[in-house]
Amino acid sequence: MPPARPKLLILGTGFASFSLVKTIDVDRYEVIIVSPRNHFLFTPLLPSTTVGTIEFRSIIEPIRTARRGIRYHQAACISLDTDAKTIECQSAFDSQRFTLAYDLLVIGVGSLSNTFNIPGVEAHALFLKELADARAIRSRISDCFEQASQPGLAHPNIEALLHFVVVGGGPTGVEFSGEMHDFVAEDLSKWFPDLLPFVRITLLEASGAILTSFDERLSQYALRHLKRARIQVRTHSFVKEVQPGRVLLSTGEEIPCGLVVWSTGIGPTALAKSAALPRDDRGRLLTDATFRVHGHETVYAIGDCARVESENLAATAQVAQQSGEYVARRLNQLARGREPKAFTYHHRGMLAYLGGNRAIADLQNVKARGFTTWLLWRSVYLTKLVSLKNKILVLGDWLQTLLFGRDISRF
Question: What was the pLDDT predicted at 3?
């Protein structure tokens, strides 16, 4: 009988975990994946799905088809015992619990949207982290327009229904605002022409600028572009509470609205907060330069839920992807009796879509903006999609939107 392979247990199916699964040597490790989500989601294009520019299934890849020779359980890890090398899981279907043993554990459970404990956010705002969130936003937009077109509705009620508020001036909030502008200008204006004067998009940002991770000149360009598109950008705006149909600011101002999209940053998951593992002040698991959790030789943490103590890496998709690939290569080399090289992060720049076929690119040697940058934005994300199927589907969605417009059905 061949020797038993070490059990490698991977938690999560995000960028970090998926990259690890694609790179790990399955002949040397018995790979088991546990996650309540059975697919990988290409989140950079998620805002495009909220308005139908891209369809939902075009940016997901089933985890079971990622590699041959892996096992997957659709469940959530609720606790772990590092002494016994076991985790306790809860099924995503019937809440039944079961225990799995491991030789090596990789925690890549990602993060949650940070509400900062502001009242009403969980109950009355919509997030933009998963496909279910994007679908809920898409349905809500349709509901607002259909309800506003009902006869006999007073103008103040129509104005409230067609006021779309985005909280958070980071890439997700800005890109959703741009996609929403395109949806209104290119499609909804044709089918709801009487309602067009009532539509408003407002972007609220607590700090003094939007897209602060970008070069300042690009951030200023983005601000000017959004204003030209009649998207109201309000900086230094602190949300105090979210209530049904309105947002309350710290100044006492009330903003009536039909939709609130919350994209103000990330926070730790329940597992990251509850695990008896070292964490930083933001709830992220602390690791050494090899992504091994401090004090635990057989436990690794990668992606948004982790932080390398000696470095200050941003919680981005490219950081997560590179950390997953590195841990996989490290484990492959250790299995072959070789000494792994140290991790080196390679920053490839940042991109953001602004709407109106305009984008910005903050690359190492290039700071670009405008229409040609939008073409670059599309080209880069098209090449980064994980499978040929996804590339063909996304390309087809873009062509279909160009020729026939976005679908406005509610389903």
Answer: 63
CATH for 7-111+268-335 is 3.50.50.60
* Centroid of chain to Cα 5: 34
Indicate if 121-265+349-404 has the same CATH topology as 7-111+268-335: yes
In angstroms, the CA 339 to CA 331 distance is 10
At the topology level of CATH, where does 121-265+349-404 sit? FAD/NAD(P)-binding domain (3.50.50)
62 close to 56: Cβ distance less than 8 angstroms: no
pLDDT mean over 155-169: 97
Distance CA 263, CA 21 (A): 29
Sign of CA dihedral 56, 58, 62, 66: negative
Question: What pLDDT does 2 receive?
Answer: 58
112 and 266 in contact (C-beta within 8 Å)?
yes
Would you list the domain boundaries of the chain?
7-111+268-335, 121-265+349-404
Q: Looking up tokens 């349905």, which residue turns up?
A: 139
Q: How far, in Å, CA of 55 to CA of 58, rounded?
A: 6
DSSP class of residue 379 equals H
- Looking at the chain, the whole-number percentage of residues with pLDDT higher than 90 is 93
Q: How many C-beta neighbours within 10 Å does residue 171 have?
A: 22
- Beta bridge partners of residue 263, listed in sequence order: none
Question: Which token pair is 321?
Answer: 């992807």
**Residue 273 in contact with residue 281, Cβ under 8 Å?**
no
What is the average pLDDT value for the chain, to the nearest integer?
95
Tens digits of residue pLDDT in 338-389: 988 889 999 999 999 999 999 999 998 899 999 999 999 999 999 999 999 9
